[in-house]
Amino acid sequence: MDMPETVRDQCVVALTWVLKDTLGEELDVLDDPVEFLVGGDDLLPRLTEALQGHAVGDTLQLHLEPQDAFGDYDEHLVFLEPRKLFPADTAEGMAFEGLPLGSNPDAPKDKLFVVTEVYPDHLVLDANHPLAGIALRVSLKIHAIREATEEEVGRGSAGPGFFRIPPPGGGHLH
User: Fold this and answer.
1) Structural domains of the chain, with CATH
2) pTM above 0.70, yes or no
């Protein structure tokens, strides 16, 4: 099988990156190359678009507005919930998939909620991605390109799909 010379949909790229906010503060660093399926669910659409036609060794500098990254911050995704519905050891930074029975029925069922504040009688939970509302500066380097396997194409991913699920506690994206 021939290895593609440039990035295109349905190939796998090995990338390193540095993500910064617009003030230059580092938000995430990926030092060791990680593989992502281009044209699948692994990368933000704007990154997939920017990588097209680039070759191994190329570096890209991108500026992503929130709508091209993790979306605008939505205050309707912040919920105040009774403390008694959660485990006794619940602390700031912990994450829950969905909210327990008895919580706000309007809360989305398919979101990851991060505890942002703990009070004696209630918790504040935020279902926004930790980078929602933030414009990003992304420095990418392409380390390798290969054909995607049928399994990767069918799954829509070459691995964990870092951009799909927000990190618990707002930690690294990988």
Assistant:
1) 11-70+133-170 (3.10.50.40), 75-126 (2.40.10)
2) yes
